[in-house]
Fold these 3 entries.
Entry 1:
Amino acid sequence: MELQQLRYLVAVAETGNFTRAAERCFVTQPSLSQQIINLETELGHKLFHRLGRRAVPTETGEMFIGRARRILFEVETAAKEIQDSPSQERRITVGATPSIMPYWLPPLILEATGRFPGLVINTLENFHAPLLNAVVDGEVDLALISMPVDDHRVAAEVLFREPLLLVVAEGHPLASKPEVTAHDLADETFVLLGHSSSLASQIQRFCGDHDFEPRSGHHCAQIRTVKSLVAVGAGISILPKSARTSVDPVSLVYRKLSGRAPYREIALVRHLQRYQSHGANQFITLLRENVRALDAGKRETGGKAGK
């Protein structure tokens, strides 16, 4: 039994198809299929039902695939631990959602370049659920996502809480209204990130808590697109305070909602059983320092959001 056979096995289980599994593993489909047959012969049990183009694990297959995942995880973790020497290049992959990545990761990478010359930070931008899966599968070392995080295999450290602000175009009636409440938004058209976005889910919950369903006119993949559409009056949106930048369209107006104003909690997520490398520790140290500096700045200014 070889580790490569276990990798092929897991790939077939995750893709549900021998051809797609072969593409993922960069081998030919006949070669991958033969390795699975060899593994089944060695074990004396079928691991997959071949249903046309679909490959569905048998009961024995389900049990063995779980073991295979744990074996591969342990091998990769052991290799990473051995290779992780302060005298060598330290490479980590950090994931973040589209509403976090452009505002937090670039300055952190820039600072890390000066402080930790051997640290190489790769990034992966994706929505909440895929990033959580990437942490569990070992595709990323760490991820910055919003709470809640419901998976017993990971640890989630809440770093900070930030308000979610109403964003409208300069000429919109809500831009100059003395006080804006959630109920003022009930008849508005929203510009939102895609359905997979945790920010979109938070907005849905906030509106639901105030007994209305947000009327969505636009679904976007990037915060920049949301801002551009709001700026031309295509609708309103709700964005994190950290998404407000000096390069925003000049016609954008940010308003703090009164009453039960929405907010989000950003967490650092890592696998509970994954070896935490020296490079990962350096990044976490840097991240925590930046969060503390942000908190100190809020205290100095009285924590006011402003319009």
Note: The radius of gyration is 24 Å.
Entry 2:
Amino acid sequence: MLKILSARQIKSLEESYLEEKGILSLELMETAAEAFCQWYMQNFSRRQDIAIFCGTGNNGGDGIAIARLLSRQGYPVCVYTLGDAKDGTADYNSNLNILPTNIVNKPFSNIDWERFRCHVIIDAMLGIGLNKPLEGKYLDAVKKLNSQKTMRIAVDMPTGLPSDKLVDGEAFQAHYTVTFQTPKLSALFPEHAAYVGDLVVKDIGIDGKYFNGYESSRYFVEEKDILERHKIFHKASHKGDFGKVLLVGGSKGKLGAIMLSAKAALRTGSGLISTFVPGFGLPIMQSSIHEVMVETCTGNDILDSAPENLDRFDTIAIGPGMGTDEKTAEALKNILESYKGKMVIDADALNIIAKRKDLKELITSQMILTPHLKEFERMVGDDVKYPEGRIEKALEFSQTYGCVLILKGLHSLITTPAGIQYFNPTGSQFLATGGTGDVLTGVVASYLGQGYSVENAALCGVYHHGLAGQLAGEDQRRGTIASDVIEKIPETYKNLGLS
């Protein structure tokens, strides 16, 4: 896990690291520049012209060092500076002094924008210390650079984007942001997706022990964190070992939701899947998903009753497509009161709970709730548009009701009652299509049924769901549908080297 720190904490962390290691800040800057260049050279051609825009602070020093290192590897580089070197930091000027003379270095003010052409723009104008809206030459630069129809990459943070709060005004719009050691909080806000682009985190050698002295309950998940949370099954494992899962949902016109959940649970590895649907769904389910057992309620069109003998299941997931009828709400109440095992609560089940305080009181530590932003807003009764407040609201809700909360979206936020919050690294815009939330419900329920803790099921479920979305998007692009995501779930295990 990468601990997420504030801009002030990061500055203090770097100072402590440099002091203990007995190295200069210039050496750490060189390490960061090398990490950036290593990533860049793996992804971009030497035939592409690069324009690096540098301020006179340490972020600009990163940019100057990157220019030198890329030029040394045969990349065509030009540098454009904003500000006077006499106002620059010591590390900026140290790098400027060793910039090879073959690299063109021009003031930003001298650019002829009508004739300006390049393949790649690298933003190294302002770093993580920004605490006010852009103005003057930096605002002018960002507006001009954002209008260029070319690849744009930000070093550490896009210029204009504060590290810890919502942007105010303009900011550089990057296709990639290459940050160092740990993500900055605001780079994880869905509202900042158009500025951050794809987030790349590069290690610059600051060991985890240096983070221990800094208080933070927020973490960015890494692949290795998922690997160590997975259970290992042996060759003699039988279907009972992989869990008995019940999925409750469906209504007229929305039976597809529970079908997607069931297929996702199967592809995630569940041993036995049962569904509980309205009567009309029996022939549809049995003819469509041969591997799933089907039970029905007393009503034909809506869920108007609860299943019997719920203790035969290792976990229950409830909500996809089930509607919010009064009888359905009572069936939900019956299940919440009678079942004491692990549960996933999603979709219409959340919408019912949002309206009834008596049902909120039935939420337990055995439950994982999976709202998207609008569903969460209904549950807390407050505006959750502002990300800083939304993160705090998620923490408050999880601790009040003792549940694990998955707030779905870009870098989905998993919050535990212990006060720990995890940001997920996987996913893409191609998950923004109907039914992918139902897929997540099935994935998480499958892990619960396989015996994972509620925390591990949430973390592994969100990670694999996001990765499956990425893989499906690589193939289908904008044509990606929820069923494509399901079919990519097995490939996520191969990607992680899991059996």
Note: The two ends are 23 Å apart (CA to CA).
Entry 3:
Amino acid sequence: MVYETPESDREKAINEWLPITSNRDAKWWYFAFHNVTAMVRAGVLSLPYAMAHLGWGPGVTIMILSWLVTLYTLWQMVEMDEMIPGERFDRYHELGQYAFGEKLGLSIIVPQQLTMDVSSDIVYMVMGGQSLKKFHDLGVQPDVDYSYKAASTSGKVFGFFVGLGEIAFAYASHHVVLEIQATMPSTPEIPSKGPMWKGAIVAYIIMAICYLPVAYRILEIQKLRQRQHPLNIRETHLAYCYSKHLPCIVWLIKCKPKRFSLTWFINWICIILGVLPMVLSPTGGLSSIIVSAKYYRFFS
């Protein structure tokens, strides 16, 4: 029998009151629905522009690679939800506190979640306005150009960095995974990770179906050479809130895979692939701001 401390009684009372943990009766399709709605959002509108910067080959490769990396790191989060027998990490910051310590875990996870939510709201407004304007200005263009948008080498490089940020932003749902999993029942015989993983597979298949046609079809009907990046909010905020590599870091710290094993290599590769967009994308966004600053017309 586990001895219930006053603190654990308090936490139990809080969890029984909070909506996400008061009734743990969610099914796998609940997660599939919530994950799709968390991911297929404003980021999908920026995929055509990302493809214009990256080109067909690199663009398709990066989209598929991002799909695989985010699916793998999501699996890690699902697995780590019940990595301590008899306990569950119902919120992302609880997992962070377990991995990095009580204070450091909060300072790492919570600001990123808040920044992600606030930045997403800003991006919805910016991308919504841009998209409405595009629909207003276009018809079908007879002279579609499939070449890179930039003419100079430096422009192509920085544009490539911007494209990385566009795709990275499109794959964003990890900050709510554990909160969704908290709504599911779990027993030692039937842990919650089973239905969660089933829902994740369905969600990612739906997401791929939504993303790929949008990134190819809109590119065919838009002439992109005159497009400007008003503030590059997506790229600049990624330096702080792009956290796809955090589950890999926690996995290495707490699961301790054997050094130089396949799992060890996969996690380090995912960490590197997560850090690269975090560094390169804001660089490309800053370059774009500098180049196109003379065209800015605030509140116009």
Note: The chain has one domain: 24-294.
